[in-house]
Structures are given as C-alpha cells and as structure tokens.
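Co-fold these.
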Amino acid sequence: MTAFILARLIRALAVLLFTVTLVFVVLRLSGDPAQQMLSDNAGPEALAAFNAKWGLDRSIPEQYLYYVANVLHGDFGVSFADGRDVFTVVSERIPKTLVVTISAFILSIVIGVPAGIIAAVRRESALDKGVMAAAVLGYSVPNFLLGLVFIFVFAVWLRVLPSSGSSTWNHAILPVATFALFNAAAVARFMRSTLIDVLAQPYIAAARADGIPHLEIVLRHALPNAAIPMVTTLGFVAGGLLGGSALIEPVFSWPGLGSGFVNATNTGDLPVVQAMIVLFTAFMVAINLIVDVLYAVLNPKIRKH
Amino acid sequence: MSNFLTVRDLVIEVPARNIKILDGISFSLQSGQTLGLVGESGCGKSMTCYAVAGMLPRGIVRTSGSVSFEHSGQTGAKSKAPKIAMIFQDPTSSLNPVHTIGYYLESSLYRHQGLKGSDARFEALRLLERVGIDRARSRLRAYPHQFSGGMNQRVMIAHALAARPQLLIADEPTTALDVTMQAQILHLLEELKAETGMALMIVSHDLGVIARLADRAAVMYCGRIIETAPVADLLQRPAHPYARALIDCMPSIDPDDLEPPAPIPGSVPLLDDLPAGCHFHPRCPRTSAECFVRFPAPATIGPVHEASCYHPVAA
Amino acid sequence: MSVPFLQASGLSKIFRHKTGLFAKPTNQLAVNAINLELAARERIGVVGESGSGKSTLGRLLLGLTEPTEGGVWFEGVNHKERQAQDWTAFRIRTALVQQNPLSALNPQMTIGQQIGEGLLVHHITGRAGARDRVASMLERVGLSSAMMNRYPHQMSGGQRQRVVIARALILEPKLVIFDEAVSALDVSVQAQVVALLRSLRQELELAYVFITHDLRIVRHLVDRVAVMYLGRIVETGDIRSVYEWPRHPYTRALLASVPSMDPTVRNIEPPIKGELDGSILSTGCTFRTRCPFALDRCVTETPGLRFVAGRQTACHRAEEFPQAIAKQGSLTRKDIAR
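Predicted complex below.
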C-alpha cells in the first residue's frame, strides 16, 4: 500500500510541475503584459520601466527558473493591479470558496446518494422514474443559468434571500443550492446505475438465497461494493465544483476564488492568474490523490495486493 | 416414510414475457436422500432450485402448484419451513468481494445459530477445517479473490453448513472447477451427507456427477420433468427418448468405447416458441400423431420409475 | 528429409508480475521447456487443468505471444524470423477458435459479414464471391445459409460456436488451434460440434491442436495427447494407449477423477488432494509435492520425458504402475440396452 501511495504522490507532483510550466509558457505567449497593464499611449520608457520592475526583461528560461523557485517559497509575486502580495490576494479568497463548495459537496451527496439508492432499489417504479426525471432536469440546465433563475425567483420576486455579496449566512444559501442541485443530480444518476450493476451480481443473488433481509443486503452487501466506483465519480464531482466556481461565483458576486479568477483574467493581472491556475491544479491533483487512495482503501483487491 | 419435500404441479412464469419457465413439475425427495436434476441450459433446473428455496428472482412468479415440506421434530408444525442452504456454480463470483471469509461465515453463524464473537470465530474455524481448508485461522481475514475456485467452493459449503441445513441445494457446484478438484468436492459432499444426514438436491448437466451422488434422478426438458427414476435405472434403462439421447451423447474416457458421442439432431427450442404437445417431438425418432397434440402424462415404467412419453423405450 | 509441419523446441514462457512499485517482481513459469511436433493433417490434444500452461502454449504456437526461450517453427520458418508479409500468409494458413463464442463475435456485425471478412480483407474474393463462399461454409457447418444476415445475439450458443468455426475455416487453414472450443457448450451441442469437426477434418485436411481440460471429449477428436502439469508435458503419446494404461501419476489421477457414469462408483477417495502450487521448485519433479508415489530421487532429479511402452512419460517410476487405475466398474453407454 505504501508503495502505491508513494507512486501516486510522485505522479501528483509531476502533474503539478507540468501544469506550472504549461501555465507559465501559455501566459507568456499570450501577449505583452506591459502593453495590457499600461495605457495605450505609454511611451517606450514607461514600458521598459514596467518590464524592468517585473523582471520581464530577462530571458524566458531565466524568468521560468525564478518563477519556479519563487513558487516553491510560496512567493507568487505581486499583483499587477494593486501591488499586494499575490499569495495574500489569493488566499483571502480561499475560505469563501471552500465554504460554498464543501457545503455544496456534502449537500449533493446527502441528496444524491439516497435518491440514487431509492431509485435503484425501486427500479422501474414511479418513484424511480420521478427521481431520474428530476435528475435529468437538474443537470441539463446550465448551472449559472440555474443561479440566475434562483436569484430571480428568491431575491427579486419573492424577496426572501439576498442576491449578491457574502456578508451573512443567508447570502450563502443560493450559491450553495445552485452548486448542490446540479451535482446532486449527477450523483443520483451514477449512484443508481452503479447500484443496479452491483445488485445484478451473483454474490447478491447468493445473499438473497441465504434469506438475508433486503435492507441488510442493500446496506451491508451492495453499498460497500457500489462505493468503490462511486468514489471515482465523486472525485469528478468535487473537481467540477471547483471549476464551476468560476461560473457561479460571479453570478452571485460571491468573493471567492472563482470571481477572483474572472476578475484577474479580465484585467490581465498575470501573477494572480498564474497563481490561481496553480492553486486550482493543486486542488484537483489533491482530490485525485484522495480518490486514488480511497479507492485502494475500499477495494480489498488493491488493498491486499 | 413421508416425503421431506414434495413439489406438485409447479408452474413458474415470467408474466412480463408470457413465458413458462416451469410448466407443471412434480417430484419428491425423502429426508437424507439425494435427488439429481439433469438437463441442459434453459431446461429450468436452476429455477427449480430457487423455487424450492423460496427465492425466486424479481419478475418471476409461481402461478400454480406447490412446494411443501414435512419434517420430523416439528410436531404438528408442518408448515414451518426447514433449514435450506444453497451453493452455486461459480464460487468466486458468488462471494461478496468486500467481505472477508470470516465475516461471511460468522454472519451466517449468527443468523442461524445465534453465535457471536469468539464463539462464532471458533465455530467458523471448525467449519473451515471440516471442509478441508488448512491454515484456517489466517483464511478468516482473507478475501475471496485471494483464493482459487476450489477453495471458495469449500468456503461456500462451510457457509451452507453453518445453517445446519436439512436440505442442501447444489446448483452445478463443480462445473467451474478442475476435474481433480471436482473429485475432492464430490467426496466432501458425500462425507457431509453421511455425517449430517441432510437431503441433497444436486443439479448438473454432467451425468457422471449425478451418477456419483444421486439416489434418484429427474431429467428436465423445456420446463418439464420428462423422466424420474432411481439413478441406476435411469442410466441403464432410460425410457424417454430424450433421456436416452442425452446419455448417448455423453463422451467417456473408456478407450474401448469407440463410437463418438451421438449428437441429438436439432436444437433445444426457445421457451417462447415451444412445439405443441410433447416438446421433444421435432427431435424424436419415435413419434406418432398424439405426440404433436398433447404433452404426455407420466407413464409408469417401474415401481418408482416414470417417463412422460407415449412411446417409452422398453427395457 | 521433410520439414516438420509444426515444431516447438525448448519452448518456455515466463510472465513477470509486479506486486508493487518497489516489490521484487515474481516470475510465473507458465510454459517450461516444451518440445512438440505436429505433422500435417495430424491431430493432437493438449490436456491439463487451470495453471497447466496449455492456453499459453497455444498462443505461443500461433505466435500471439513471444517465448522467453526456445522457438516455434511452422513449415520450417521460425516465428522470430518471420517477416511482415510472411505473417499475413501465416495467419491465413492458421486459425484460432476460442472458448466463448459470444465474445468472439462482434455484436454489431451480421454473421455473414464476420465470416466473410477474412476473404475480403486478404483480397481472396470480391463481395459476390465472398457471399457464395460464406453460404457454402454455413451449410458445411450445419447452419442454414439464410442465417447470413442474422446477428450473434439472435442465435443459440451452439450456433454461435459453429459460426466461429466457419469463420476460422473459411480461409482454409492447414493448422487450427482450438482453445477450450467446446467447454462452454451443452453436452448435446458439444456432441454436434464434435461430429462437425470430425467430418470437416476429413474434407479439409486439417492439422489441429485441441486444448482442453475435458478428458472425455478430447478422446474423440485427436490421435495423440500431451498431458500438461505446471508448464511441462508429463506424458504424451497415442491417446488410446495413454488412456488405457497411463504411466504418470498425474495422468492417472486425472483419469481417475473423471466422474464415471457407473452409479456404483461412489465414496471413493479423491485421487489427489490439495491444489496446484505455482511456486517454482528449484529441483526435481514439479509434481512431487502432490504425488503419492514420490521418492527421494524425485526431489533431486528432474525426470525428463522418456520412452516407456510406446509413449513418452516424465516419471521415474513409470514402469511400476499397473494398468487398472483406482476405479471400480466401467459402465459406459455400451452397457445400456438398446
């Protein structure tokens, strides 16, 4: 097992390094930062001064090495926009995003998993069809559209919830609901199909032949097996939540990483964009690592290998 | 001696597809005896096992006929079902991959004997040893995928024994195993039968397995039993043309048996497209007009030997 | 001196399994120094249980996997030296029929398309010619040519296996490897396929290797047999003589384990106990750990195949075994009153 985890860890770090490099290359090629930040009629001295200040006049490989070295120290430079340390700029937004994404993740599991189980166990019944119809609706509607609809219904029309900002807990309800509903639908569908596959297995028929009560079969015999592929699915959901934050947070003006990323991209704030990409990648890689480890822990065929 | 198990005119259907999986089968089993169910794929032998065990899958229902038990020790309580245990064809996929062998055995011991904790563990070890698994202690913590098919089949048998069954139903228990392992498992079943006095219902397409274990055998074709007889009589004096043909097409290792297995012409009909009358008539060399019209009632061949045929082969 | 049709010499195959990133890889010696010869139109059975290496041997013979040691020659050419265009010719002259007909057939293509595919791909005929050949091949394997447009799921298991055989034989190969080709079929269907193979063999002048664990069915299909245990051939020779008087303890155990149709044969001890132990023994006979007749000599000296009573057997004590193997009675179909 240790060897397995170690191998996955090394792979994760390699992915991270690769991403950092890729980000660096792409953004450097995307345009002259000096031109973007300064006004159009800035003179060559102003440009040269800007470049010197930010170290943009050195050769690309040099810039890269400095960049990587700094990243390892947690120094992502300073924001082009307000001169503050990028690390601070980014990290102050992290809690806001985490609050919403973690709540939404938990909520989507709490809603989606039981819904999927019920649909699988009561297959072909009206309940099953109802749940699946709701699920299809839930993830067919683009999540930012869902967010706008929620704002319209709850904030504008019914006036029960605030539409933007993040000052009170009430402000979190709509963003979390938007995130959660979309993903709960996906979770419900996957849970249902995974559980149906497991229930069709010969060892479940053997358990039924033993006279084990139905509830015990679902909970103790089927679910532990269904959990194994579900872990991978939930990993995708978690990753999707993170990426989705860039779409949904701006809708609610929720000051998290997502809106921060959108703002920084619009203003060409290179260091912040780079840092955010690296951060997102680090989160995704961490999620994948957790999924891999959980998968190995839950699956005795790998655990005991 | 009363019959331990009596199945009478059992009909099992899939209503959604309007198919009869079993179309009125009747047989009986005395306590301590072994009944062999013989037939090819689709004849309904596995479904018979599920029906007897009371475990028909979803979408399959008993529409008429009965399965009843009568066993001693339950004075007046004829309706109380006896303990039945079942073992299956592919042992490794019949065991839950996320449960340890220990959990598997101990949960059965708890369910059937109320044993818990160290009592359960002790008994689980004893059962594993009884079925011939060595190093039992370390096996309890292991998972099915770590073992061979033969070992897992022994585990399934141990699990069945935990229920202290009066009837063990074995559905093709050795088909997926190597022949040397098959001999070991068959021998184990013989020993356990003698030790516990349990009745055994064994399903197999292999007449050699039936010959070894069964006292009586019933041959099935397309959801019906077409011949029932003591096993020696069935093998030496089969009356129904299908039973005879089935025996003729069994290959053997006897070097003096020079003829290759004789194929039965045609193929087994699908259950939704059965020939009228006797289902075997398209492939039968002994037909006459009535064979096309009505399914033959069982004809008496011997004192405990019946065949559903208008032209049974005379002994 | 004619060139042997198919020859394997010193053939070995080791599979390496890695259990973890830093764990030492374990070696599995699937096939261990096998020598085999097959003449044109000759039929040989390779029998063994799981773990014997028989399937691996089949794949080695067809060049589907590379040997770790030794070589395979087909019509005088070693697989290792075969060039690209030679391989195509080789594939046309050989065929493989495997166990599970459902997964061997593409569910999206009609059986006519699948049988005829080889003819088109190798430019042997055009479409019209292919259709004719497919129709006649279907008739030859006992199916109606009208089935050409059916899909695999519309046919029974036996019919599908005939389709697989038709597909294998349509290019008129001279060597076919059957790997558990009838094991998944019902007994009556097996009998039909056996009858088919026996008749086709006369017509098509086929040589084949029939790999199976089923000692009963193979007797009707081959002239010679090779019994494998843990990657080695332990006994080989004319099938009748091997079955009549087996001279290796494993062969004897195998034959004694086959359930007899004689209902008086009951309550007999299993001929061998325990299971296959795949660990590689450094010296001696691979069967010694389970052999009831093992001597000290069996631990130190590996028995090689040697000629005893008209066949080859790898046992130091081959001459000592009496004819009757531990089985009372021999009721067969012959004894059934007709």
